[in-house]
Structure formats: structure tokens, C-alpha cells
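Researcher: Quick one. two chains, 403 residues in total.
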Amino acid sequence: MKALIVDDSRAMRLIIGKILTEIGFEIIEAKDGAEAMKYFDGTGQVDLALVDWNLPNMNGLELITYIRSNPLNNDICVIMCTSETEKSRVTDALSAGANEYVMKPFTRDVMLAKLELLGMVRS
Amino acid sequence: MINGTSSPLLSVDFDYVRQMMFDYSSVVLEAGKEYLVEARLLSIVQEREMNSLGELVEALRKKSSNKLRQEVVEAMLTNETSFFRDVKPFESIREFVLPDLISKRSAERTLNIWCAACSGGQEIYSFLMLIKEYFPILEGWKLKVIASDLSLRMLEKAKRGIYSQLEVNRGLPAAYLVKYFEKVGLEWEIHENFRKSIEFLSVNLGSSWPALPVMDLILMRNVMIYFDVKTKKRVLNQAAELMNSDGYLFLGGVESTINLADQFEIVSWKQSSCYRPNRV
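Model:
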């Protein structure tokens, strides 16, 4: 399975990428929302997207709205992975079409538990 | 040896802590776990401005303070838990166990549920959120929900129903977070109606149990791993006696009734197993 990590922090892309690689994901990275858009053309390029909220060019919420605007992307699991921790932010992300929400900072266990909830990894 | 103390844990002191843990919690501390005692009791040594673990054990020997003993026992207990831990047991409760119990109790419209090692409350609240989401039919039923733990500190946490960001991050669906929790400062508090629907009790599973209603469902997950075989047998036999014959017992993923309590039959559902007393 392929996972796209959209985060402007190289360190964060490395951290998330390491966790996902360990459980068998193939990793693709993008530094901002605009760069990530090309992976959501409805041809099934990725199975999972981890999207930061605060991104240059196109923010994470806008990217998720873009992803969900194409029904061909419905099968892609999207996790908003952000340091935004207000309840209204979680609500907004879910309303835009995120399947799950991970608040930074997080641990490996947190990420694995979220993926387990989405049926993308077994405990 | 640990930082902040002047001497390592003597074997005689380790043996004293092991025996005390067994006497007051039935938890078995295996040989070689000195490091665990040192790691978990260091903060008590420092808070009480003692010089060493030896001094702490000496204070315990004098039996001058039940409070100190309770504090040490609680510090040694493992409280590992998370919302919807392991996922699969909750799927089998949703897809099989509760539909079966609801069908069988439709005349009485009562269900008794016991979370027997509730730790900080994440497991029993997960169960109640699952009911709220998938079983609105139970709103008209009489549900007796009991959550117990040996640790008074954990019971207090479970009663408060307030969790850190890391705790709600781990295993709790984001949709449930926004639906059933409010953010209070940096923490998240579960809605009061969940907290009020649970009776919290202090129960030492390895000792005699208080009077409890006959149970339809017992969650006793990831606690028996800390007991010896004799205690496991006693606990499982007591559980069997306490349950309706068509009730369900859930244990942790590495726990089982096999060779411990033959009266239980294994009930498998997809990739999860639970147990049912097989009384005639």
C-alpha cells in the first residue's frame, strides 16, 4: 500500500515515514498541498494520505476538500495530522472529509492505533 | 542503582516488596524485576526526601503507614490501557455479543456489565460509546455498569473522565472525540452522562469480591497476566460463578481459560475470542 505524507517539515515526514515503512507502506512525500494535488487525480495513486493542517500554498483543510471533491478518491483514507488541537478544528477536518485526526505530538502507538481503527493495520 | 539514591536495591528488600505486592494485590513480581521496583518507586523516595529505596522498604516494614503501603502498591501496578484497545474485541461485542444478549434479555430488558480492571476508565467508556453509537435500543433498558480497579488513583481518574491529549489521541475515533468530549484547558473531559452511568468500585480481584449482581458481560482484560496460576484459577472460578450461563467473559489477547477453568467454553467471532460459562 502507498502512503502520501504531506508536511512542510522534513523531520516530520521522516518520522511518519519511518513508522509507516516499518509496517509495510511505500512512502511518497509532498511539501505542501499544491504539490500533493497531483496524487489525487482519481487513478488510485495512494491508499492513505497523512495531511498537515498548516502548509504553504494550499493548506491541509483545502487539500482534503479537494481530495473529497472527486468521488474517485473516496477509497483513500485521509488522516489530518496536525498541531491544531481545538475541538472546532477536529470537527472541521472531519466535515471536510478526513477519516481520522492525529494531534501532534504523537507516538508510534498513537499512529498505529489510528491505522488499526481504519483497518489499515492489525494489532 | 538509581539516580538520587545512595545504594542499590538489596535482594532482601526486593523480596519484601514482592511479598507485599502479592499480599495486597495478588500481583506476582518475578525474579529479576529489581529494575522495575527501582524505576517505579524512585519518585516516592524522592517525594518523601528519603535517601534510598532501602529506607523506603524499612518504613514499609514498620507498617506505620497504610497510606505509604497503598502508594507503593499503586506505583508498582501496571495501568497500561487505551480507548478501544485491540479493536477486535469491541468489534465482536458490537457485531455478536450485544446483539445476542439483547435478543436473550428482551423480556427483562436488563443487562449487567462489569469492567473488572478498569484502570483509567478508557475501556468502560469505549464500551459505553459503542452502546451509544450502535445500540439506541438499550436506552430504554436498565443497564447496570460497574467499573472496578485495585488502584484508588486509577479509579479516581476513571471517575473524573478527564484525559490528556496523548490519551485521546490513542485509539479513540476522532468522531467520538468531538461527539462525546469537551476540551477543558489542555485536556479532554468525557460528557457527564457517561460518568454518571457507571458505578465505580475498589475491588482486589485476587481477594474476596464484594457483593455483585449476576453478570451478563465481564471485561477482565490484561490483568490475569500479572497473577500466578492459583490466583488465575480462583479469579476465573469466581467469575464463572458470578455470570449468567449465557453471559460472556472477555480476557486479554494473551490470556485464556485453558487449563485454568474448564467450565468455560471458547466463543470465537472472526478474529476475536471470548468465553462463556458452560454450566448445564
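The domain at 88-277 of chain B is CATH 3.40.50.150 (Rossmann fold).
Researcher: Thanks, that's what I needed.
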